[in-house]
């Protein structure tokens, strides 16, 4: 499943189109959006950021530290406690 991620214009709530994106870090991109409402014309930058891990990578890379979602961290802690 794939989703086209967008965020509606915060002023007129019309659909917006991504015009460009720029990598800011391994976990953050900035995306420039243009409102499709010709009466509005708002151009704005939004952020896309990796926030939490739901399932850990099988190929972890040094320097990438993404916190576990609280419920996942709790389940991992419970599993580790049962191994002791
Ligand atoms: Zn707009």
Walk me through this protein's architecture.
Strands 1-2-3 form a 3-stranded antiparallel beta sheet, with no helix packed on it. The chain has one helix at 70-83, and strands spanning 16-25, 28-35, 43-49. The protein contains 1 helix and 3 strands, in the order βββα. The chain folds into 2 domains: 1-50, N-terminal domain of TfIIb; 53-84, no CATH class. The radius of gyration is 19 Å and the shape is elongated. A hairpin with a 2-residue loop joins β1 and β2. The N and C termini lie far apart (39 Å). By secondary structure, it is of the alpha+beta class. The protein is 17% helix and 30% strand. The structure holds zinc ion.
Give descriptors for this structure:
84 residues, alpha+beta, N-terminal domain of TfIIb, 2 domains, three-stranded antiparallel β-sheet, 1 helix, binds zinc ion
| Bound small-molecule species | zinc ion
Average predicted local confidence, pLDDT: 92
Poorly predicted parts: none
Described by the principal axes of the CA atoms, the overall outline is elongated
CATH topology of the largest domain: N-terminal domain of TfIIb
What's the N-to-C terminus distance? 39 Å
Biggest sheet, strands in spatial order?
A: 1-2-3
Estimate what percentage of residues fall within beta strands. 25-35%
**Percent helix range:** 10-25%
* Radius of gyration using CA atoms only: 19 Å
DSSP summary: helix tally: 1
Number of strands: 3
In N-to-C order, the SSE pattern is EEEH
- CATH C-level class of the largest domain: Mainly Beta
The largest sheet, given as strand count, sense and whether it forms a barrel, is: 3 strands, antiparallel
């Amino acid at each position: 499943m794939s989703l086209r991620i967008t965020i509606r214009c915060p002023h007129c709530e019309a659909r917006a189109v991504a015009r460009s994106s720029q990598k800011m870090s391994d976990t953050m991109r900035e995306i420039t959006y243009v409102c499709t409402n010709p009466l509005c014309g708002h151009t704005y930058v939004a952020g896309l950021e990796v926030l939490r891990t739901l399932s850990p990578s099988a190929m972890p890379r040094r320097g990438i530290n993404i916190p576990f979602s609280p419920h996942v961290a709790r389940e991992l802690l419970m599993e580790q406690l049962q191994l002791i």
